[in-house]
Design brief:
Restriction Endonuclease, 50% helix, alpha+beta, AIPR family protein, AIPR_C, single chain, 4 domains
Length: 678
């Protein structure tokens, strides 16, 4: 990847777009696929967050995607300019201005009455109604033009629309190339304090190690807030940015100090820890050092402090006087680029030991992901119907698949390679696993957030690394997920396909106690007719449920809440006899769950297990007999109840899946008249 020319990068970028087009499930045009791929890169770079693909073109209006913060204060509108050329083409300012104008007009209509043009189950309706209902809350609007062309620098001026400040930016293919080729997947921040702020920062320097240098300084609250205002999350090292998820809320203790005792902030606060590629020092006549500039400044600890100072300054209720606020800052400069990847993550982890999440390895370099990569390179799926066998390709790091394709010398050979080696990425993997583990509200948060959630769960696991059986099951889940995407698309629901898919499969996972025959799916590389019919049937009520959230809530936000899942999970539904006949036994499912369990339980999971374990074994056996005698509940549910009783009788605890299903039967039985005291 690091040695790619611009031309090679561009060719691979177009290949990524084409792969998405080939797997088209959405009805998008090629401009939308370009937008999706571009935003994936920008999300990894920290330049896009929580974006929603929402293609719309109207007379003088354009929208390809958007992001809107939970407090509705910050909106980003993405508009794309795509041209179908083999080589990057220059894009004139006139084309950029026209696209931005369409986005401005879209915003102006959206805050008025654009929502009346759409049905309520449409993605664009949610965008329009959100802006209309919260137009007074929107403080900043960023319009970002995306293009696979080349754009000369444009000096945009911010404008005001109503109470909102509107800014503009461009990501062209050259800017993306430079960002990716930097090896950091983010743009390098260069801050010259002397040129920009007409000051230098006095410091103490220590260079006793050959590997790094450290500078200790005190920075003013005003300066730190100004830096955060300009660079926002780009200033936060990726681990901190990903997992602190700093929002608009101000930490209460920090807020109170900033408001009531700003001059005591330096004494009360631990300060911030920063890494940098280099620091430029100037000295006075006595040789005392001061920091003139910092290249690639990244805050690895103190993200909450930084964002809270900024937010308190902006919040009129707090009305913080930052002129009296000072923050201590430690800057670590790694002397050798060879040591960067090793030392910087350690500084980040050790600096954040007060937060247990921070000491996890947050990257795809985790042994789990490396093991999945190894398995994907060696295991071939069974051949079907005279076709060539397939070897699913796990792309642990972006660019691996494109590099393999580049080795194929002709278009025909590349086409054959893609057919034989279906691609799935680390965010795909997280989507499949969290859906099967009945966490659709995580999946609904978007690819990167869901991956972070999954990575935390993996980092907390106890047990062996994935084996061949685990990999078979994983690919079966991938086949099931992708087929469900197609089946849901065929129903033409109008919008929210991603939410419908994950909730549909999570619901089936729950209702079957994860007894869908994954090994059969692996062997046949396809779903049975009964399972496909069940997926369509379930998707119908899922769609109706999620597009009618309680209290007229935002559909997308509602799907991200565990409460949404809990309400859907309790929906009365009986699996068809055809699918029930195909389900594997409780014992086999339990064995597969043990093989498959590389994830540690959450606190909520543990409380459910403890609740099930607190009920005596005799009660579970009595319930099993009662259910059989009264013909209440399905045979597999009675079997689970008996298994839970057996485990508790042996002083062992049931699994989370067993506990959930058993407690549902137990509570349902109480409502039907079961009395464990009789």
């Amino acid at each position: 990847m690091a040695n790619k020319t611009m031309e090679q990068f561009y060719t691979d970028f177009l290949e990524e777009i084409q792969m998405s087009v080939d797997a088209d499930l959405s009805g998008w045009n090629i401009e939308d696929f370009f937008t999706s791929i571009m935003l994936e890169y920008l999300e990894e770079a920290g330049e896009a967050d929580d974006y929603i693909m929402c293609p719309f073109r109207g007379y003088g209006l354009q929208l390809n995607a958007y992001s809107l913060t939970e407090d509705y204060e910050n909106l980003t509108i993405y508009v794309s300019i795509y041209n179908d050329n083999d080589k990057p083409k220059s894009i004139g300012q006139q084309d950029i201005d026209a696209a931005i104008k369409r986005a401005i007009q879209l915003y102006q209509k959206a805050v008025n009455d654009l929502y009346t043009s759409f049905q309520k189950d449409n993605d664009t309706y949610e965008f329009a109604i959100s802006l209309h209902d919260h137009k007074d809350d929107i403080k900043t609007v960023r319009i970002c033009a995306l293009t696979n062309g080349l754009v000369k620098p444009i000096d945009f001026k911010n404008i005001s629309i109503g109470n909102s400040e509107v800014s503009f930016s461009i990501w062209d293919i050259d800017r993306l190339y430079r960002c990716v080729m930097s090896g950091k997947m983010r743009e390098t921040i260069e801050i010259d304090f002397q040129d920009k702020f007409n000051l230098t920062i006095p410091c103490i320097e220590n260079a006793t190690s050959d590997k790094y240098s450290v500078y200790l300084a005190i920075i003013s609250g005003e300066l730190l807030a100004g830096l955060y205002d300009e660079f926002r999350d780009r200033l936060l090292e990726k681990n901190v940015r990903s997992f602190l998820q700093v929002k608009g809320a101000v930490n209460k203790g920090i807020r109170d100090t900033l408001r009531d005792e700003p001059d005591m902030f330096l004494a009360y606060n631990n300060g911030i820890s920063v890494t940098a590629e280099s620091v430029e020092i100037v000295r006075d006549e006595n040789g005392k050092p001061s920091i003139k500039s910092i290249r690639d400044m990244q805050i690895v600890n103190g993200g909450q402090t930084t964002a809270s100072i900024f937010n308190a300054h902006k919040d009129k209720k707090v009305n913080a006087d930052l002129s009296k606020v000072f923050v201590q800052m430690k800057i670590s400069v790694i002397n050798s680029s060879d040591d960067m990847d090793d030392i910087v993550p350690r500084i980040s982890a050790f600096s954040n030991t007060q937060n247990k999440v921070q000491v996890a390895d947050f990257s795809a370099n985790d042994p789990y992901h490396r093991r999945i990569e190894e398995l994907s390179r060696t295991i071939w799926a069974p051949a079907q119907g005279g076709l060539l066998p397939q070897n699913w390709f796990y792309e642990r790091a972006r660019g691996q698949y494109a590099d393999m394709l580049a080795r194929e010398s002709t278009t025909l050979r590349r086409k054959k390679y893609k057919e034989q080696h279906p691609l799935f990425t680390k965010t795909d993997l997280a989507k499949y696993e969290n859906t099967w583990d009945q966490l659709p509200f995580y999946v609904s948060e978007g690819a990167q957030k869901n991956f972070r959630r999954f990575t935390i769960r993996v980092s907390q696991r106890k047990g062996k690394l994935p084996d061949e059986q685990y990999y078979h099951n994983l690919i079966a889940k991938a086949i099931m997920f992708r087929r469900t995407e197609k089946l849901v698309s065929q129903q033409q629901y109008g919008g929210y396909r991603a939410n419908i898919v994950t909730y549909t499969l999570a619901f089936l996972s729950y209702k079957t106690a994860q007894r869908i025959d994954l090994e059969r799916i692996w062997k046949e590389q396809a779903l049975t007719e009964a399972l496909e019919k069940e997926i369509v049937e379930v998707s119908r009520f899922i769609q109706q449920t999620i597009v009618n959230p309680p209290g007229g809530a935002n559909v997308g936000e509602w799907c991200k809440k565990e409460k949404c899942w809990k309400e859907i999970r309790e929906h009365e539904y009986e699996i068809s006899k055809e699918l029930a006949d195909e389900l594997i036994s409780v014992e086999k499912a339990k064995k597969e769950q043990v093989t498959d369990s590389s994830i540690e339980l959450t606190e909520n999971d543990q409380s459910i297990i403890d609740e099930a374990a607190s009920i005596p074994a005799t009660t579970w056996f009595e319930l099993s007999r009662w259910a059989k005698e009264t013909q209440n509940f399905a045979p597999w549910q009675r079997s689970i109840v008996f298994s839970v009783g057996t485990l508790i009788g042996r002083e062992k605890k049931p699994s989370i899946k067993q506990s959930i299903q058993a407690l549902k039967v137990y509570k349902g039985a109480l409502e039907k008249g079961f009395n464990p005291e009789n």
